[in-house]
Amino acid sequence: MADQDATEVVPLDPLREFGAKVYEACGVPAEDAAFTVEIQLTADLRGVDTHGFQRLGWYAGHLQAGRYNPTPSLEVLKETPVSHVVDGDGGIGQLIVARTMERTIAKARETGLALGTLRNSNDWGMGAFYPMMAAAEGLISFCTTTSVPNIAPFGSRTRMSGNNPMAFAAPRASGPPVVLDMALTPVALGKVMRARAEGREIPEEWGFLDIEGLPTTDPETALSGIIPALGAVAAYKGSGLSMFMNLLAGALPGGYHSKDVNIGKRGQFLLVIDPEIFGDAGEFAEKVDSMVEQIKSADPLPDVDEVFAPGEIEQRAYEDRIAAGHVIYPTSTLQDLRELSSQMGIPLDL
Predict the structure, then answer these.
(1) What's the rounded Cα separation, in Å, for the pair 102 and 157?
(2) pLDDT digit string (tens) for 71-85?
(3) Cα distance between residue 93 and residue 69, in whole Å
(4) Burial of 260 (0-12, 13-18, 19+ CB in 10 A)
(5) 140: helix, coil or strand?
């Protein structure tokens, strides 16, 4: 059994080089490969390492098997001054969502508000990346995605809807943006997958059930059983949110939703708002600062050292790791990368 606490410090530059070479070996153009690697490393730098290079081997496998398109065309199917519907053409999710977000941001700059949707897309990795793109330019953003069916409608045992995450970001006058990136389960499923890979149990308080509706701490049973939406107490809320994320990111773009979502059949919804259409953008950013200051001034509970604003913990991890020039991986992730290196004949020089 792997030590769940075992981690290793890994320098960034060799990872960048390795990741780019892996994607290029799978037919991805060099510029797109480098961009995709940066998106994944951003997840690792923010401490969201279940959505970073842990998935490099998965994506490479999909590319090699022809399930992902290394050179998607990104055809605009329908467009208005404030919206566009894009066919993702089965490309790498991070790449095609980020490219679509670039277009959506440009529209919002012109019109004050813009909506971008994608169909025939794939896993988008760390959802926070896309609204953060907008927040970096002083814009507000909300994004969501469909995902493969693994959540049962409230009161049932039939896996029908995805753990459709949602991500928000808003700019501040001083300091990094406020960011909320949340899935609809008590924890990201990537954490359960990691526990399975490391041969360890998951906490019962995560709320996963077997197919009979009984609590389980076995990750394999959890992933094939009834996956809770926002935990047992709020399961009906999570189930309802999952449905509406399917409506926005699946049905609205004319793509797939609910139990029909699969590889190459995901969808995304990207909303970008320029605060200037409501008033002074600088004043809005100052109000966001004020909100953060109020949260930070809240009296903590006896067992809490500090109260954090949404995204603050991840931002601190990012700043620390960027300054150090490294990321920190569980040993299991590094083992997977070394296996990928061996399989593809691409050196991983750490």
Answers:
(1) 39
(2) 999 999 999 999 999
(3) 10
(4) middle
(5) strand
> What whole-number distance in Å separates Cα of residue 220 and Cα of residue 201?
9
In sequence order, what are the residues at sequence separation of 6 or more whose Cβ sits closer than 8 angstroms to the Cβ of residue 108?
Answer: 114, 134, 139, 272, 273, 274
Token pair of 224 as six digits = 């094939």
Inter-residue contact 223 to 196 (CB < 8 Å): yes
H runs (alpha helix) in 175-259: 189-197, 219-224, 235-246
Structure tokens at 212: 């009979």
Report the 10 Å Cβ neighbour count for 313.
13
Hey, CA dihedral for 58, 335, 20, 47, is it positive or negative? positive
What are the tens digits of pLDDT across the range 11-70? Answer: 999 999 999 999 999 999 999 999 999 999 999 999 999 999 999 999 999 999 999 999
Q: Which two tokens stand for residue 102?
A: 């670039």
Give residue 231's pLDDT. 63
Contact yes or no for 74/93 (Cβ under 8 A):
no
Nearest to 260 by CA among 153, 184, 161, 166: 161
Query: In a 3-state reduction of DSSP, which class is residue 90?
Result: coil
> What is the pTM (predicted TM-score) of this model?
0.93
Pairing assessment for the beta strands 161-162 and 266-273 based on DSSP bridges = unpaired
Instruction: Delineate the domains of the chain, giving CATH numbers in brackets.
Output: 1-71+325-350 (1.10.1530.10)
Please give the single-letter amino acid code of residue 297: S
Retrieve residue 19's tokens.
């990741």
| CA nearest neighbour of 314 among 184, 221, 180 | 180
CA distance 256 to 266: 7
DSSP reduced 3-state for 177: coil
CA dist 117 and 279 (Å) reads 27
What are the structure tokens assigned to 182, written together? 């949340």
